[in-house]
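Please go through the sequence and fold tokens given here and tell me how the chain folds. Record follows.
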Amino acid sequence: MSSAPPLPSAPGPALRRSLGVVDGVAIAASSTAATTSIAIGMGTIATIVGLQAPALLLLAFLPVLGIATAYARLNRSEPNCGNGYVWVGRALGPWPGFLTGWVTLVGSVIFCAYTSAIMGSVVLAFANKAGLHSLAGIALDPTSTGVTTAVGLVILLGLTALAVTGVRSATRFQFALLIFEYAVLLAFCGWALVTGDHAVSLSWFNPFEISSGTTFAQGMVLAVFFFWGWDAAFSVNEETKSPGDAARGGLIALFAMLGLFLFASVAFQREMSLAELVRNGPQALPYLGEKLAAEPWATLPLVALMFSAVASVQATLIPTARGLFAMSRDRTMGPVWTRIHPRYGTPAAGTVVVMSIAGVIAVLAVAIPKLSDMLLAAVNAIGLIVALYYGLTAVACAVRFRSARHEGAREALLAIGVPAVSGLILLGLGGYLGYSYLTMSDHFELSPDNGWFMFSLPAAIILAGLGMAAVAKYVRRSPYFTTGRGTDAESLTLPMDRTAV
């Protein structure tokens, strides 16, 4: 066994410890964005698997829970804001480790870019309902890509400033938004559950009702994407007062998301037929509000969706900047990402750069119409990326704690069996869906409906990641590629936030 790398002789760049369990829950729940997932996803998943959404959400939760326990175990052993990038690098090698970090970051930046326009559209729709249809001679049209992107970028700028000036204030802001979102969501879904005309059917919970293996795989990957974001709590494990708080926050948020998703999926299907769900697609939640209530109450789901979009973008900015901080700390990325603000103790420069990249992508999507289709397809392909990095991290847990097989059946099951099976399920689903994309088309076309194009996007992200890994190894000569380990977070000076309540 190789010896551990020597501790740094001087303290490195340090994040500020100021967060607790509640903050971890707020970050994880905001990043998962249950309201946005429900609002946009329920109609989308219905177009793929019909009325079997409750079955798939329940099934998808099982491997995700197994992966969450792997994250918690790895976090106890080695708390590091690079999480999967560090853990996979140590257990499976630096190349898959770097790739884990890379695909996580690229997926998050794409999500921020895509969601900025959605955020602007929801804000403008709310402004229209409030009677504001133009400003300074500019029509506030929620269907205009240019105007919605401009509004979204203004909001993105404000969220970046909040993330820079202190992660604790950002999480408190997110928590306030979550309380309103969930109150509205529970009220309207509860109303639909009581008054809906469609009887609850056991077939909704039967995955064998799904027509084909490809449809099942597409639905499962989309259902896993519903839960994506709970791991954001682990990105601030160097800023929590106790690293265990990050794990507790992530697991609490994950179980809360399961309850919300199952409750909402049954409520939607009680109130709406399959044809209504498919027809309304990403507008299913606002449609539910209009169907159940008169104005101004019918607008509340739209406001909740607006708050959810805002919170999810901010919750994505925070872990993305910290993942890059961890990679830069190991010299696998450039030095700009480790610049810590002297007053706020946050990776300010990195947060601003992430916002800028997302903003540029969003603007290019307006300027180049075909890029809009590419961006939409990229968001759809994020499901494959999520399956890849969740799967690799879970397998890394099984490999790292393989000695637990000597510690009894229970410990072997929890440390090796559950993570390994969960990771292999997601990797298998991703591989099967990738194969389905390759065989569903006989030519390449820049269209979200073209299988070859859909496969090419995650493939291009992975190839770019391998290229960046080569730069890190051969140009930057990062020690990460020699030791397979990230910088030990515990060897750094991590000051307590004396102003924290």
User: Anything to note?
Assistant: The beta strands are 134-135, 138-139. DSSP finds 17 helices and two strands in the chain. Residues 1-11, 490-501 have pLDDT under 50 and may be disordered. The longest strand covers residues 134-135.
